[in-house]
Amino acid sequence: MFKRLLFAAGLLVGVNAGIVIAQPLDEVTVEYQTGGIVATIHMTAPVRYLRHFPVNGGKTLEIFYERVQGVAVDEVWKDNEIRQSPPSGLFPAFTVTTRDQQTQPRLVIQFAREAQYSVAPGPDQRSFLLTIKPDRVAAEPIALPLLPTVMPLPATPPADANLAENNRQGFAMMTEARTALEARKNDEAITVLNKLLMLPPNDYTEVAQEWIGVARERAGQFDKAKTEYDLYLNMYPQGGGVPRVMQRLAGLGGKESGPGIVEVTDKKQAARWSTFGGITSRYYFGKSKIDSTTTFNNAADTQSISLTDQSMLITTEDATARYVTDDYDGRIVFRGSSTKNFIADQSSQNRVSALYGELKGRTQDYLVRLGRQSATGGGVGGRFDGVSGGYGDAQDLRVNGVAGALVDYSSGTKPVFYGASADSGDYSAYLINQTVESVLDRRAVGAEWRYFQDKRSAYALIDYDTNFNALNAAQLTGTLGLTGMSLNMMLDHRKTPSLSIRTALNGANTSSIGDLQQVLSASALRDLALARTATSNMGQVGVTMPLNKKFQVGGDLRLSNTSGMEASGTLNSPEGFVAAIPSRGTEKIVSGQVIGSGLYKEGDIWSLSGSVGTSGTVNSTSLYFYNHTTLDKGWTLDSSLQLYRQTDQFNAVTTRISPMVRGEYRIGEQLTLDLDGGIESTKNDGTQVSTKTLRVFGSAGLRWYF
Predict the structure, then answer these.
(1) Residue 175 pLDDT class (50, 70, 90 cuts)
(2) Do the domain assignments include residue 212?
(3) Cβ atoms of residues 135 and 116 within 8 Å
(4) Do 592 and 554 meet the contact criterion of CB atoms below 8 Å apart?
């Protein structure tokens, strides 16, 4: 009896300390487009968009999604991960935070002030597109001037002699540029304006930055014009020329580079450095009490144990340094975490999830990234150390290459791989070769298809492994926006885990593929890996529709089936013995959700969701309630309550009740303090053994934005 309690206690500690926790958020990028400012929220693995709320405006936005199994070994995604939007004065700054990854995954976007937006799934199945209405843009098209207005020099020069001299030169050059523009000598105007922009900042720098874009546009240098306009918006987000520049930039939306004038003697703009990111330090605490009662011959025996199952300090860092010139955009990105465990026999660890340098062309279509990075498709099996890059226009033809070693924090030798892919319009194709300990681990060819238009999107994937001569994965997802509602669907067929020779190590008496190769032929090794690989099929359809301005309802139906696996291997041999695993049969889950806003306070968000699931082995029901409220003086409050009940094939009943509350306080623009706490009460009633577990947990964190 006591051994059983110790096992349960060890399991609790192991769950909190031994599982690999991964970062779901990659980065947030911003691009100026005709329809507004598009912020792309990049994830580190495939996701499927379900719904979002509020629909088109507010200070808080929640995006609900479902994680989609990829070709990589899935890691547990963590909560409370935060990314900050790149700095800009053209739209409200915002943060993106992961919430409830194990119950109801969603992203919480908190804007610095009210914003108007629209949300759509990204075309790569790994992102969400958040289109934000700019703070400063003309409601209607405005009349664009043909020539710049040159301010006269002030009658009284500034006290700073250097500024006075720079103003004098700036006035002369701006006047000369205006004359050249009037005579339609755009190349001459560009040369003069470049000289002006090389001066130290003065009263004519801002207008020169606007009009060098105009001069390049009139010269047919559309890509360079976009670069100049983009530079203006970043340097002068509150400038008087913002509405004009936004309108000119929108007019260039569908144009590509014209023949124009290639100016080999142009003086380049001074390079610009910018840095942003954040550091979070968070302490987690959990304490559990386990009561186990065994009934034998109508006599009950109860034993109890209490323990601290979690006490750790996790510090995460993410930082981006950006270096931009006229010709290229360079970045250095670092994301890591440090975990300090305060429980005896639990190790501390330091992990780097991203550390790479990236160089992207602004006038030519190329990109190179070197270092630790997350896969962006092409059949790559997850995070890796290596190099990736591409050249060309994806709408015409873009070729890509990648090579490296996987980093999945597992034991044993890391697989190394190389691959190539090509993109053309809506289609992509790839091939990849992966080895482990010089043994072929994975060799696959695949294709992707993407369709992306306004309120309609679709994505299809097929991955075939030529080493196993088997289909590894096939998937089709789609969203469709109709009048008053939106639909989403997914069909998925795949091997689980993904086809890999390393699967033969599951249950083996060794962690080395080389050891298995000593006793098994290549074909026998593949057969063993296949025997320890299941096949899963899943279909899902969902619908979301508004009830009125304050309420939205949604529902999903999922059918899934995972095959069983026959017994494999031999007990006393290197490959080990794995007992047969029966199929759970077809699992059916029906879920529904009601979301409301502004029920008792403007900007609050309420959510009530429930689900009913059945399978050959387990029947379950769950109910989840959630509220988000923005309070006065910088506080926000989140509260939730989860109820769960499960009955298995042996009539054992498990119930779980878990209330939780979380408060966040923003200290100025750069500091955020948050605290949370909750209780989880779990009861399992079996025919002979009943277990009650009461767990109290909480955390407190401080984040600094820079």
Answers:
(1) very high
(2) yes
(3) no
(4) yes
Indicate if the alpha-carbon torsion angle 217, 219, 221, 222 is positive or negative: positive
User: pLDDT at residue 137 above 60?
Assistant: no
Which string of DSSP letters, residue by residue, matches 341-379? E-STT---EEEEEEEEEEEEESSS-EEEEEEEE---STT
Q: Are residues 108 and 41 in the same domain?
A: yes
The mean pLDDT of 485-495, rounded to a whole number, is 92
Same domain? For 165 and 265 the reply is yes
Q: What would the two tokens of residue 553 be?
A: 């309802």
122 and 174, same domain (yes or no): no
Q: Tell whether omega for the bond before 87 is within 30 degrees of 0, i.e. cis.
A: no
CA distance 204 to 187: 19
Domain boundary among 132, 149, 172: 132
Has residue 567 been placed in a domain?
no
Of 623, 624, 627, nearest to 599 (Cα)? 627
Question: How many structural domains does the chain have?
Answer: 2
Q: Which among 490, 491, 514 has a CA at the least distance from the CA of 504?
A: 514
State both tokens at 216.
Answer: 């390049």
Q: Which two tokens stand for residue 536?
A: 């899963």
| Shared domain check, 261 and 165 | yes
* 33 confidence band (pLDDT: 50, 70, 90): low
Query: Residue 257 pLDDT > 50, yes or no?
Result: no
Omega before 201 within 30 of 0, i.e. cis: no
Of 156-165, 207-216, 599-608, the least confident: 156-165
**Residue 205 placed within a domain:** yes
Strand duo 106-121 + 57-67: pairing: antiparallel
Residues 166, 268: one domain? yes
The predicted structure's pLDDT at residue 255 = 47
Query: If you ran DSSP here, which 8-state letter would residue 181 be given?
Result: H
CATH number at residue 251: 1.25.40.10
- 114 shares a domain with 173: no
Which of 240-249, 260-269, 503-512, 553-562 shows the lowest per-residue confidence on average (mean pLDDT)? 260-269
| Of 219, 245, 272, the domain-final residue | 272
Spatial CB neighbours of 156, under 8 Å, sequence gap ≥ 6: none
Token couple for 576? 């080990």
Average pLDDT, the chain: 85
Domain with 69 in it: 28-132
Q: Which residues pair with 427 in a beta bridge?
A: 424, 449
Pick the closest to residue 559 from 535, 583, 574, 540 (CA basis): 540
Same domain, yes or no, for 172 and 123? no
Q: Compute CA distances 317 → 28, 82, 314, 584, 636, whole Å.
A: 15, 10, 10, 41, 23
Domain contains 193:
yes
How many CB atoms sit inside 10 A of residue 233's CB? 22
Indicate if 190 and 254 belong to the same structural domain: yes
Cβ neighbours around 230 below 10 Å, total: 17
Altogether, the residues listed in the chain come to a count of 706
C-alpha 412/C-alpha 463 separation (Å) is 26
**Maximal CA-CA distance, the chain:** 106
Q: Which of 212-216, 317-321, 392-396, 455-459 has the lowest mean pLDDT?
A: 392-396
- Cβ within 8 Å of residue 26, ≥6 positions away: 42, 43, 44, 126, 354, 374
